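Hi there,

I know you've been waiting on this one. I reran it after we fixed the sequence typo, so this is the corrected version. Both the input and the resulting structure follow.
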Amino acid sequence: MTAHAPARRVPRRRTLPLRWRVAVAFAFASLLVTGVLALVTWNLASNYMFDQRQQSALGEFSANARLITAYLQRHPTLDPNAALLELEYDQEDSVALRADGRWIADGPMTDPATLEALAERLLKSAQTPTTPTQHIIDTRPVLATVAALPQRDGLYIELSTLSDLEQTLRFVRTVLLAGVGASFVLGLLLGRWAGHQALRPLTELTSTAERVAGGDLRARLPEQADADLAPLARTFNRTATALEQRVARDARFAGDVSHELRSPLTTMVNATAVLNKREHELSSTSRRALRLLTADLARFHQMVIDLLEISHDHSNQEHELEPCDLAELVSHTVAARNEYVPLHVDEPHPLVLADRRRLDRVITNLLDNADRHAGGAVRVAVLRRERHARLEIDDTGPGVPPELRQQVFERFTRGNRHGDRGPATGSGLGLALVAQHVRRHSGAVWIEDRPGGGARFVVELPLSAD
C-alpha cells in the first residue's frame, strides 16, 4: 500500500482591501466613460474643424482661380506674374501658376519640380480636382487644390497650410487627455469616499466586536435607520447581550461555588495544620498521604481565591482608575517579597491610569510565576515607550515555546506541566488573571524570548494624560 504524497499548499492570493477595490472600480468606470466621451468628442471636433478648414480653403481657391482666369483672358500676352498680385491668401499659404510651360509661385513652397509632380498627382488621383486634399510637402501639412486653366496651357495650385489647425487639434487633444486623467483621479477619490461610506457600518461592527472580544461585554452597535443594516445591528446586540448574561451567570456561579467551598476548605486547611504539627506521631504511609493532602489543599485554596477574583472582576466591570506611578508600585511590590531582584526604571517615571489593587495583583502573579517555573525573576524593568508604559519581568528558566505563549494566559493552563500536582504547579489561573486585569486597563501582555535565554513577560499600559 503506497503512501499518498502530501498535498501541495496553494498560496493565498493577495488582494486589495475592499475599500480600494471599490475605489479602483470607480476609477476605471470613470476612465472608461470619460475615455469614450473624449474619443467621440475628438473625432467629432477634428472632423468638423477639418471640414471647416477644407471648405474655407476651397472657397478661397475658387475665388483666386476665377481671378487668375479673368486676368489671363484680359491679358493673353502679358507676363502672368502680375496675376498673382491680385490674389488674396495667407502668408503661410503658397500659390503657383503655370503658364506657357513656366511656373510662377509665391509663398514658402515654390520649387517648380515639386509643384509639377504634385499637380500631376492631383490631376490623376482626384475624382474632383477642385476638392482640397491633405498632403505633406517639405514636412509641412497642407491642403492642396489644383485646377486646369483653358488659357496658355495653364495650371493653378493653391497650398493652404494646416499648421494652425494641427496646433488647435493638439491643444484639444491635450485638454481631453488631461480631462480623462483628472476623471480617473476623481473617480479614485470618489470611490474611496463611497467605499468608506458604504463600509462604515462594517467598520463599526468590527470595532464593536473587537471590544467584546477584548472583554468589554457592554459594547453595542448603535441603532441603524437603514432597513438593510437594522436587522444586523439588532442581531449583533442580542448576541452580545446574551453573551454578557451568560458570562455574568457563569461568574456568579463560580463566585457562589467558591464562597460555598471556603468554609469547608478552611476547616480542612486547619485540620491538616493540626495534623502536620503531630506529623511525628504518624506512620510513614500516613505522613506521605498527609503531605499530598496538604499540597492539594494549598493548590485548591489558591484556586478558590483566584476563582473569587475572576468572578468579582466579571461582576464588577466598572472600577475606578486613578493616576499611578508604575515604577513606585512595582518597586513596593518587589520590596514586599523580601527577595532581591534587579530593578531598572526609566526617568521620568511613567504614569498610568490604573486600579492599584488589580495592577498589584498583575505584578505579584508574574513574579510568582517566575518563582514557580523559572527559579525567580532576574530582572524587572519599568520603561517608557512612546505612548505606553512597559513592564518587563525576565527569568532564566526554560522559556515558553512559541506555540504555548498565548495558551498560558488561558484558564487552567499550566503549559508543559499540565497534570502535575503540588503547590509548585499553581492553580492554572494566575496568568489568566494577569491577562484579564491587563485588558481591563486597555493594555496588552505577551511573552518574548529573553536575550541570553529564558522568558520575558511584557505588559504594556497606556500612559496617563496627566
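Quick highlight: Residues 322-462 form a domain with the Heat Shock Protein 90 fold (CATH 3.30.565.10).

Best,
R. S.
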